[in-house]
């Protein structure tokens, strides 16, 4: 009988907790809140630069804690909030109610019999949490009162931890219970106000007067909150489990049954590896290493090149961590395998952005930190990371003019997506401004990782052999070319060779699988992928392999950067790589993706509009070697020394582990 009663009691309590949590969640989430935050208090509430504080408000507004937490967590997703509760039944009930929302509790007050206080243990726990950057919420008149009379615990904690007390007051549409504190419960679809005052610092000398100071401050804030809704930050605040975009979430769920057929179609076109295609569905093909895991996501080849120094810096600074690097393309995966052999680096293909596949990926790998690059803003994956409390950062953050205009048509989605990011290291001031306009917070002006990247590697033996083979020839490189512009490059080369037959052009298609297509434009020009080398009579060599761009930049006297000539859509490619290897550089006019880089190097990079101008530039570089060398040295000078950038970002990332 006793077991039956005990079971009934547990069931009743579980149902009560669920009902209370459901009601409170609906009421707080549907209330339109206004937050008025004292400027000096904001850094402490958002954990800026590791700051922490003891948040203090009267026990009567304890049910409104989720609203405060959801607001603070939107400012900084990795923030942690802990509430001091009593050890009695009411305290445990409150702890169970708020736990699913990420609010942790510390039991430290007396139980109903006045025993087992645990005050010393709770104090130690709170001091450790404050040192770790957590916020601690204390109700100084709880758990038994008297109402609005502060007890000395908050002062002692602030003094011993060296952190300030931040007072807060709140009011909302609701009703009060007949309890000792007249507990305030919110009503759904109402209005609420939080007012947070300036930080208060207490010492042993001011502790006696601090009681009156704190009571006066809290009562004033409660009065301000109850009188009217002050001007401040407005909005509805919801738990982090809500996705940034319900539409994106729903579309992803609906498309999931059809996406395997899409992946199969990509296999037939050589864009997926059959043995690893299930990675795109979130299935792992490698074992997760023990210990902390950093997840780096780089979409394609350019992002992989820029992020590798950051990955290696993180591994060098912390021998306990491993790195999971995900890419979206096969070429990027091949590049990663060629560039890095550290056993602590694991590669997987990133899952498509659907709820089911994203959850499967995160549940298996359980990363401590996620690092996305450039413009990889996937609402589904970012929302899933936020729901699991995984801090996400964006490095080399890029927001092009066209992307910025597109996202401005979806302000709510991009704002919620950006709020999932702990911080953004913007590539340029223009990128930082665009992110800020779209609603991003905590933006740091890091710089361009592509500038900080080391020179591309080379097989020295192969380089020496080809140097001997091409002795006496002037080598021109067309790097990362796209469909539609190879014809113009070939036309320019043929024009130059009429007067300078010693010219050899190396064409490197951006996508190596197009090598045969490009070779056919010249009636089967020699292809490196087939082991063919150019003979004395060959004017063009198709270098359709991966990971050898460092070799071709070193062989060339001048370089044309592809994906930039009309009629293609264009966008340009990274000019820092050839500049770092002492090359004279030319480009077409369509360079939107690297406009800042080309603008900074405009004095040493030539812009050509068509095949005729490209041919003239090649002749100019061929016949004026001193001019070519001067332009190459000037370009190299623009590749400023930012070798400390990966180390700086690595330090910030590792602090999140």
TrEMBL record:
<feature type="active site" description="Proton acceptor">
    <location>
        <position position="303"/>
    </location>
</feature>
<comment type="pathway">
    <text>Bacterial outer membrane biogenesis; LPS core biosynthesis.</text>
</comment>
<feature type="domain" description="3-deoxy-D-manno-octulosonic-acid transferase N-terminal">
    <location>
        <begin position="276"/>
        <end position="452"/>
    </location>
</feature>
<feature type="site" description="Transition state stabilizer">
    <location>
        <position position="374"/>
    </location>
</feature>
<dbReference type="GO" id="GO:0043842">
    <property type="term" value="F:Kdo transferase activity"/>
</dbReference>
<keyword id="KW-0808">Transferase</keyword>
<dbReference type="Pfam" id="PF04028">
    <property type="entry name" value="DUF374"/>
</dbReference>
<dbReference type="InterPro" id="IPR039901">
    <property type="entry name" value="Kdotransferase"/>
</dbReference>
<dbReference type="InterPro" id="IPR038107">
    <property type="entry name" value="Glycos_transf_N_sf"/>
</dbReference>
<dbReference type="GO" id="GO:0009245">
    <property type="term" value="P:lipid A biosynthetic process"/>
</dbReference>
<dbReference type="Pfam" id="PF04413">
    <property type="entry name" value="Glycos_transf_N"/>
</dbReference>
<feature type="domain" description="DUF374">
    <location>
        <begin position="80"/>
        <end position="147"/>
    </location>
</feature>
<dbReference type="GO" id="GO:0005886">
    <property type="term" value="C:plasma membrane"/>
</dbReference>
<dbReference type="InterPro" id="IPR007507">
    <property type="entry name" value="Glycos_transf_N"/>
</dbReference>
<comment type="function">
    <text>Involved in lipopolysaccharide (LPS) biosynthesis. Catalyzes the transfer of 3-deoxy-D-manno-octulosonate (Kdo) residue(s) from CMP-Kdo to lipid IV(A), the tetraacyldisaccharide-1,4'-bisphosphate precursor of lipid A.</text>
</comment>
<feature type="site" description="Transition state stabilizer">
    <location>
        <position position="450"/>
    </location>
</feature>
<dbReference type="InterPro" id="IPR007172">
    <property type="entry name" value="DUF374"/>
</dbReference>
<protein>
    <recommendedName>
        <fullName>3-deoxy-D-manno-octulosonic acid transferase</fullName>
        <ecNumber>2.4.99.12</ecNumber>
    </recommendedName>
</protein>
<dbReference type="GO" id="GO:0009244">
    <property type="term" value="P:lipopolysaccharide core region biosynthetic process"/>
</dbReference>
């Amino acid at each position: 009988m006793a077991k039956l009663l005990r079971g009934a009691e547990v069931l009743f309590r579980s149902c009560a907790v669920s009902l209370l949590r459901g009601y409170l969640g609906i009421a707080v989430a549907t209330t339109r809140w206004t937050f008025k935050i004292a400027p000096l208090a904001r850094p402490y509430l958002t954990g800026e630069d590791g700051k922490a504080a003891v948040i203090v408000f009267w026990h009567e507004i304890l049910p409104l804690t989720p609203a405060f937490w959801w607001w603070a967590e939107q400012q900084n997703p990795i923030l942690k909030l802990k509430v001091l509760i009593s050890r009695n039944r009411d305290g445990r009930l409150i702890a169970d109610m708020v736990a699913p929302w990420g609010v942790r509790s510390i039991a430290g007050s007396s139980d109903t019999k006045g025993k087992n206080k645990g005050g010393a243990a709770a104090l130690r726990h709170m001091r450790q949490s404050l040192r770790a950057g957590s916020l601690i919420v204390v109700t100084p008149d709880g758990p038994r009162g008297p109402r609005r009379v502060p007890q000395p615990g908050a002062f002692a904690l602030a003094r011993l931890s060296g952190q300030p007390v931040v007072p807060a007051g709140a009011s909302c549409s609701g009703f009060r219970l007949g309890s000792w504190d007249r507990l305030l419960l919110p009503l759904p679809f109402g209005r609420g106000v939080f007012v947070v005052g300036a930080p208060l610092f207490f010492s042993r000398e001011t502790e006696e007067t601090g009681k009156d100071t704190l009571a006066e401050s809290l009562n004033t804030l409660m009065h301000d909150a109850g009188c009217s809704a002050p001007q401040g930050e407005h909005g509805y605040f919801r738990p982090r489990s809500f996705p940034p975009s319900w539409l994106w979430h729903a579309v992803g769920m609906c498309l999931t049954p059809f996406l395997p057929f899409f992946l199969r179609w990509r296999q037939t076109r050589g864009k997926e590896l059959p043995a690893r295609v299930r990675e795109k569905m979130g299935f792992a093909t490698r074992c997760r290493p023990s210990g902390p895991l950093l997840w780096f996501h780089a979409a394609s080849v350019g992002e992989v090149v820029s992020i590798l120094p950051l990955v290696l810096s993180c591994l060098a600074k912390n021998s306990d961590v491993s790195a999971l690097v995900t890419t979206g393309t096969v070429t990027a995966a091949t590049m990663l395998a060629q560039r890095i052999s550290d056993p602590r680096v694991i590669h997987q293909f990133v899952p498509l952005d659907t709820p089911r596949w994203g959850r499967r990926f995160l549940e298996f790998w359980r990363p401590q930190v996620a690092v996305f690059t450039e413009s990889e803003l996937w609402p589904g994956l970012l929302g899933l990371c936020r729901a699991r409390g995984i801090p996400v950062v964006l490095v080399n953050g890029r927001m092009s003019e066209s992307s910025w205009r597109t996202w401005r048509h979806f302000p709510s989605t991009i704002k919620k997506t950006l709020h999932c990011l702990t911080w953004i290291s913007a590539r340029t001031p223009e990128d930082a401004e665009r992110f800020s306009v779209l609603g991003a917070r905590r933006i740091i002006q890091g710089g361009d990782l592509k500038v900080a990247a080391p020179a591309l590697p080379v097989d020295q033996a192969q380089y020496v052999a080809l140097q001997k083979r091409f002795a006496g020839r002037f080598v021109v490189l067309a790097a990362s070319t796209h469909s539609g512009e190879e014809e113009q490059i070939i036309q320019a080369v043929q024009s130059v060779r009429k007067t300078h037959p010693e010219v050899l052009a190396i064409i490197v298609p951006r996508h190596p699988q197009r090598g045969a297509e490009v070779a056919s434009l010249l009636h089967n020009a020699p292809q490196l992928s087939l082991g063919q080398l150019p003979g004395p009579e060959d004017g063009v060599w198709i270098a359709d392999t991966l990971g050898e761009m460092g070799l071709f930049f070193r062989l060339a006297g001048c370089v044309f950067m592809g994906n930039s000539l009309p009629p293609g859509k264009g966008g340009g490619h990274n000019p820092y790589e050839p500049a770092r290897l002492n090359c004279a550089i030319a480009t077409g006019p369509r360079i939107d993706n690297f406009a800042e880089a080309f603008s900074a190097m405009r004095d040493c990079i030539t812009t050509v509009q068509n095949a005729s101008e490209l041919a003239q530039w090649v002749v100019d570089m061929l016949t004026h070697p001193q001019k070519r060398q001067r332009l190459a040295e000037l370009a190299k000078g623009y590749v400023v020394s930012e070798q400390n950038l990966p180390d700086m970002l690595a330090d910030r990332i590792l602090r999140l582990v």
